[in-house]
User: Fold this.
Amino acid sequence: MNDNGAAFGWGTLALINAGLAQTKGRSGVAWFLVSLLLGPLATLAIVMMSPPPPPRPAGPPATTPGPPPAATPGPQG
Assistant:
């Protein structure tokens, strides 16, 4: 394989790694750049890492509602 073919394969692997990283919830651009440097080692790192935890909702924590208010007797008559 000549140098042009190796560069094409390395770039293709970087694009594949970027897509793979995005499916795991990671930055595709960052992993594309890492893949340009590390190549197949970056692929191994992406495959082995777990997805990030889901983001916590913003705002105050949700509270559980208390018991419903007691019914008051209405006027009879």
Residues 3-48 form one domain.
